[in-house]
Specification:
The protein contains two helices and three strands; from the N terminus they run αβββα. It has one domain: Uridine Diphospho-n-acetylenolpyruvylglucosamine Reductase, domain 1. The model has no long low-confidence stretch (mean pLDDT about 90). With about 70 residues, it is α+β, with helices and mostly antiparallel strands. A three-stranded antiparallel sheet has the order 1-2-3.
Amino acid sequence: MIKLSAAWLIERAGCKGIQIGHAGTYSNQPLVLVNNGNATGKEIVSLAEYIVTKVYETFGISLKPEVNII
């Protein structure tokens, strides 16, 4: 097995500093999802799903969130 940086994968997949609705990734750290003002939980989840999809499409690697989404 090889350990890869999720932040590196996310950045190289073009997701560093992106915004969907009012949710985005922090411009200095793509692992950090931020509320840019009145983001809904749905927007945060949609952003996370988008990032996972982009990384998979770019590298064929599936990211698994470390947080529990309820």
